[in-house]
Amino acid sequence: MFVVLLLIWIIFNGKFNLEILLFGLVIAGAVFAYMSRFMNYGIKRELEFYRRLPGFLHYVFVLVWEILMANLNVCRLILSEKEEIDPAIVEVKSVMKTTTGRAFYANAITLTPGTITVTLEDDTCVVHCLDDTLAQGLVDSRLEQLLHELEV
Question: Which among 4, 42, 81, 120 is most buried, taking Cβ atoms within 10 Å?
């Protein structure tokens, strides 16, 4: 977080020189010390953040890809004159252990076009799908696997 705070300081200044860097080091250090003292933050959590960052970026990339592919599927469904749209409500069991992981997964389902998470109770998501083909992608989802890896 110290590095992130320093980068935010430099970006908000709009230019970079030695004076801005030195002031940024002092201010970022002071904010980091405040966070460590009063917000239960520390070096351990900092290292955990950096350890999980590549996995989180991979998750975001896969989520954007899934959103784009779902957009194409929904466009195909809407523009196709031959196919009849057959909405479905399905229950999806999640392997997530924490409520935060389940909430992230439910929100990822809702972000993808054609699917909406209706309810989330314990480890079960009730999802409304625009078509059965969209419901098939929810079982053993790559997004769920990536989130589960980040959760552990």
Answer: 120
